[in-house]
Design goal:
- It is a single chain.
- With about 675 residues, the protein is an alpha+beta fold.
- About 30% of the residues lie in helices and about 15% in strands.
- Strands 1, 2, 6, 7, 8, 9, 10, 19, 20 and 21 form a ten-stranded mixed sheet that branches. A four-stranded antiparallel sheet has the order 15-12-16-17, with helices on one face.
- A hairpin with an 8-residue loop joins β7 and β8.
Amino acid sequence: MARSSSLSEAEAGISCFASSLPGFRGVLKHRYSDFIVHEVARDGTVVKLTSFDLPTECVDVKEEEKAAPAADADHSQALESFRALCGDADCDALRGLLERVAAGGDSDVSPVILSPDADKAHRSDVHNFFKKNFKFLVTDTVEHSDGVQRCIRVRLGSAGGGGRGGGGGGRGRKRKNMGGSDWRDDRPFDSRGSSNWSDNVGKFLRFHLYKENKDTQETLGVIGKMLGLQPRSFGFAGTKDKRAVTSQQVTVFKVQANRLAALNNRLFGIKVGNFCYVKEGLLLGQLMGNRFTITLRGVIAESEDVIKASADGLGKNGFINYYGLQRFGSGSVPTHLVGAALLRGEWKAAVNLILDPREGERDDINEVRKHYKEHGDIDKALRNFPRHLVAERAILQCLKKCPGNYLQALKGIPRTLRMMYVHSYQSYLWNHAASMRVQKYGISQVVEGDLVYNKENPSEESTSVDIPETDDSNTDSSEIDLGSEAQPEETIQSVKIVDSGDLLKGMYTFDDVVLPLPGSQAMFPGNEVAEIYHEMAKKDGISLTENAHGVKEFSITSMKGGYRRVFQRPIDFQWELMTYTDDSSSLAETDLDALSRTKPREANEPVTSEQSQDKLEKASDTSTPTNGSDSLENKPTGSPDTVPRKLAVKLAFTLPASCYATMAIRELLKTSTSVAYQKTLSC
């Protein structure tokens, strides 16, 4: 069913607050530097970019790998054989690649793409030719720019060595169902890495990735292209928000630090540093949480007391641990609706929801959707769909091979992405159940029938979680939150249903209350809250106890399920009220600011209690500029005394990986966090 707008908070089950304190007006993410995220590693350290120095460990690579290939004459016989195999154009392209490599600076050598080749057997011959004659080069099969044909890409191997499939010893499972995209699968490294690597040095290079206004996949794609690596070669614990300044740990298999460090001068809005070699690569979910520094601009409130009470209340009382709107996508087709269609076994309906035109999307993309819906021209759609629409492209590529097989087309979507549709529906049920729990029983106490983590027997059999949970992340791919930050099959404490004896002992508080994400091993509460799960699922034509079809991965009964805390308090919570005059000024220091020892363009100025009321009134007066010629623009023109000063609130806090910072901001402001609403605000 077509929708005219994106999902509202109420539709997503987000309807309650943890306190009745009044909120105030504030603009979220006016600038991307107003939202700073630092990953918190598993050992509790906050990940920051603090150094560009190379590690002290030395990677000893064999001499034949260090040496650049000789000039063209040294490979003349092999080149002539290659000419006979692939033709003049491809031979000239290979000759140019060899000359660039021989000239030095392997990190600056771009891969070459050979001519389109529809013959799979011939492509295999080409791969084997390179493996035999050019062991310092790596080949793989990629999609042609027309989105239909296949080509062989030739590039310099990691650390200068290894042939196609060589060096890695076949490590990792075969890459299936990737739909020809660059979407990252679950492998945290490139199996084509060099086999010649010092035994005394870890095989993974770990580094800190700093990025501004870019999503994680896009950033690693840029770095991978410069290094001649697939995006899936990189391992990371979770994706970070795009419209933000973020720092996180990343690993890559058998790449020397100097190659990566050399990219810093060529990268825009991206920096890498804090290099070290480690034994294992990062996997999704291997983090403790995230440290947020969030600046709310254009603050207007009745008084400083309102702001103080609201901020202190957030730190003390916390917030309801809802899944944020980004969990359900930002488009007019919420991802939980696709998940519901999958759970019902309506494969064609699910495909149509993903491919059909939608409101609010870029005009050029919507034109492609409309043309495909009317004419069914798969080739044209593949040529014109942007590469970040991973699900759409994967479906079309499968339908091109197997027309009408909608289930197979859905399975062509990378697993991480296709399972997010089902997880989104589980999150949708959880949000509504959390709202019912708060509305019916409040948040002041535990009641009989509540589910809690078992404190008496914590060593009992644990319950598995297969629901990836996320921070405040948003990737460009299909506008879905894919910041998977909990390991699949993670084990957690066992739970129990609170009885009258537990209430008498008083050993549980509302902080201990959890609600289930439905699955075969998830227990439901022993009170009326359990009913909403089944009622809402039944309304959507879904059974939580029976499989409506034979496809296990799209069935609730085949998923183990898990639990999520209803309530969350921010950790190490701090806040301050400040003033500013320039909307484009930075109000918080980034890692790059600290590294270059420069302060934000305008000093952060704390507000004293004596000044606060006067400044609040001035902020109110200038929040909505008039059309008169005498009105002051929101720019620092004239002397400081004549420029209206505005208020901002800067917050800093840490959340576990399973929590959304936007839900904390919602509790503070008592307003919607939807992108549509935020766009109506101005500083």
